[in-house]
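Project channel, design review

CF: Before we commit to the Phycicoccus sonneratiae constructs, I'd like one complete example in the thread so the newer folks can see what an input/output pair looks like. Taking Ribose-5-phosphate isomerase.
RD: sounds good, go ahead.
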Amino acid sequence: MLVGSDVAGFDYKEVLLADLREDPRVSAVEDLGVTAEDLESESYGEVAIRAAEAIRDGRADRAILVCGTGIGVAIAANKVSGIRATVAHDSFSVERSVLSNDCQVLTFGQRVVGLQLARRLAKEWLGYEFDPASPSQEKVEVISAYEGC
Ligand SMILES: O=C[C@H](O)[C@H](O)COP(=O)(O)O
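CF: and here is what came back for Ribose-5-phosphate isomerase:
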């Protein structure tokens, strides 16, 4: 499990990181930054691409990324082949992002969603797992085929 943010998502990222570290369903969490010591060290694109590449390469399974809106980190992560990332600020979208779309990356916007809602949504998200035997699989495969992976 990876977490990351830019400066605009740093506060939420820190809280979500602490939650994940306490969650018995999560075996290991890696913080990709940014850090309190160097808040401006990377933009949302750099952090999100690093997270997405780690998932693509099998070094991690999922990631939660935070920026101001959740949009920038989602766009950047989706540029990495094989990665499906989305911003989701409601329970149903969080569920469907996994069960319909097999998204490995959930993103939040610190300037958009309340902290307690984001924390709850992250907990819900952890409980979902895509079923490759479901009817959604062939729809996801259309995207994978386009990407050639
Ligand atoms: O999607 C982009 C994010 O919201 C980012 O945190 C803020 O970007 P901006 O400073 O260009 O608005």
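RD: helpful, thanks. The beta strands are 2-5, 30-31, 63-67, 85-87, 105-109.
CF: The radius of gyration is 14 Å.
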